[in-house]
Amino acid sequence: MNHHTTYAVDLAKSVFEIAVSNHPGHVCERHRLSRERFVTFFAQQKPGTVFLEACGSAHHWARSLSSIGHHVVLLPPHRVRPYVTGNKTDSADAKALLEAARNQDIRPVPIKSIDQQSLTALHRLRSAWIAARTARINTVRGLLREFGVFIPLGAKRVRPAIAELLEDPDSPLPHALRPVFADSADEIRRIERYLANLETQLDALARTIPDVQLLQTIPGIGPITATALVAFVGNVQRFPSGRHFASYLGLTPRERSSGLTRRLGAISKRGDTYIRMLLIHGARSVLCSAKRKTNPHPIQLWALELERLRGHNKATVALANKLARITWAVWRNQRPYERRNTASIPPGTMPTTNC
To answer: Which single residue of 44, 80, 124, 214 could bond 100 by disulfide (Cβ 3.0 to 4.6 Å)?
Structure first.
């Protein structure tokens, strides 16, 4: 095999399918290997290009293969799927990887380092625990409504309400359900303790990462959003402009245009849902705090005017888009966000960042 040999690997938990190609579009060898023999096989081959889908365990195997001299490229799974012809099998998936690799429009997924993977794991656990806590709270609320007990809005009001029901012997809560509701309250309290400890760990890590400190100079971006950006985005230099970065996060309009007619709709919602959610929550906090400030930022003045014209939700998403573009500029240029003087901005113009 020569140095231009390409390998396509269909990853799995235990058995991996490998397609070897020396010429574009032609598979000359196929191998089906166990997990234990996978790295040994590639260690015996001359250096080549290995294509993997960016799925579970892909970053681990990409780091392992890179360490033994291979050039590893991760491709987005949703862009590889259209190249699968016929029935879906492991061999068809591996062949589809070879075909998708020939498409120059498919952008590869950057390989995450161990540090990035650690931050990613913390955020995935946080997201899972938040979902679990929300599910338990909604279950408790729904069951109590069946007995005429209505808990006001707010996650923090659920446990005190349950405690009050359990302490009152004359409450509408049946005695047969009191032990399980006590267990539910303990479970919610335990999940909240996990979340508090995890966020404390993220705060400690945020103080040790320069890029995270830099991103926290932007309004609406705290340690959680900043560490998530560093973990999931990685190298911001791969985005040529702030619009490309906002598009990567799914914050730019979906377009359905033809001929001379251009139609822009709602945001595309592509990319990572978790980061987009954090940016939108950050934008909402910036917009809400602007209503309480006597001297708001120029970007807050712009958002307030947009809220008056378009409504709260559209103004929030538009502000999240702007925060994403500011994030790209601050991160790419390695200069902290600087607040401009309100008087120096002409009326009707869109505020930007000094970086």
So the answer is: 80
One digit per residue, the tens of pLDDT, for the chain of length 355 reads: 444 789 999 999 999 999 999 888 789 999 999 999 999 999 999 899 999 999 989 999 999 999 999 999 999 999 999 999 888 899 999 999 999 999 999 999 999 999 999 999 999 999 999 999 999 999 999 999 999 999 999 999 999 999 999 999 999 999 999 999 999 999 999 999 999 999 999 999 999 999 999 999 999 999 999 999 999 998 899 999 999 999 999 999 888 888 888 888 899 998 889 999 999 999 999 999 998 887 888 888 999 999 999 999 999 999 999 999 999 999 999 999 987 654 444 444 544 444 3
Contact of 323 with 217, CB cutoff 8 Å: no
Q: Is 49 helix (H, G, I), strand (E, B) or coil?
A: strand
Buried b (16+ CB within 10 A) or exposed e, 43-53: eebeebbbbbb
Match 């290997």 to its residue by tokens.
33
What is d(CA 304, CA 111) in angstroms, rounded to the nearest whole number?
40
**Torsion of Cα atoms, 319 then 320 then 326 then 328, to 10°:** -160
Q: Taking the alpha carbons of 272, 273, 278, 279 in that order, is the dihedral positive or negative? A: positive
Q: Helix or strand or coil: residue 216? A: coil
| Nearest-angstrom CA–CA distance, 329 and 331 | 6
* Residue showing tokens 């505020």: 351
Instruction: Give the C-alpha separation, 71 to 229, whole Å.
Output: 25
Q: CB-based contacts of 323: which residues, under 8 Å, 6+ apart?
A: 218, 219, 220, 221, 279, 282, 283, 286
Residue 82 DSSP one-character state? G
| Alpha carbon 218 to its chain's center | 19
| Model confidence, pTM | 0.86
Can you tell me the distance from the alpha carbon of 19 to that of 39, in angstroms, rounded to the nearest whole number? Answer: 15
Considering Cα of 327, then 243, then 288, then 277, what sign does the dihedral take? negative
Helix (H, G, I), strand (E, B) or coil at 243: helix
Give the count of beta carbons closer than 10 Å to the beta carbon of residue 193. Answer: 11
Angle (CA) 337 341 342, round 5°? 115
